[in-house]
Amino acid sequence: MTHGSHRIARMTTGLVLALSAAALSGCTAFTTDYAVLERDVEPADALPDAFIEQDSGDVAELSSARFVGEHSGSSLWVLRGVDQGTVCVLAYRDETAGIMACGGERGPVEMSGPAGHFVLVPDDYPTPEGATRISDNVYALSP
Q1: Alpha-carbon dihedral of residues 105, 107, 108, 112, nearest 10 degrees?
Q2: Among residues 34, 36, 118, which one has the least CA distance to residue 76?
C-alpha cells in the first residue's frame, strides 16, 4: 500500500468510527420517556364519548390515552401521536371546550384554548417557570 492509500484508509476508518459513535449516542442521548404511557390502562383513562365522536383518531392513538389529572374543570390526558416520535396532550372540559396539541416527544408541547393553557413535557424535564404541576408531564400555565 502506498502512503496515499494508508491515509485514505485511516480517514475512512476514522469517519466510520465517528459516524458510529454519533449514531449510538443519538440513540441514547435523545431518548425521552413518558412513563405514564407505559403503565397499564385504567378505567379513568377512558376518553369522553363526545370527544371520541368528534375526533377521527388521525392525529393521536386514542387507545393510548392516559388520564393525568384535572385543572380548573378540564380533564387532561397524554396520548401517543399517530406519527412516530410524537406525543399529544388533551384538555377537555365539555363538547364546546376541548383542545389537543401534538408535537415531538422531546417536548415541550404547549397549547392554549377554551379548556386552558397547558404544556406537556418529557419525564425529568425542568418545571416550566410559573407553572402549576398537574402530573409528571403536564403543567398548567397562567394565561
Answers
A1: -30
A2: 118
For residue 143, is pLDDT > 90?
no
pLDDT (tens digit per residue) in 9-18: 333 333 333 3
Half-sphere exposure of 74 (CA within 13 A, CB side): 24
Please compute, for residue 24, the number of CA atoms within 13 A of its CA located in the half-sphere on the CB side: 6
Q: Hey, what's the cell of 24?
A: 449510538
- pTM for this predicted structure: 0.76
Question: What amino acid is encoded at 80 in this protein?
Answer: R
Cα(83)–Cα(85) distance, integer angstroms: 6
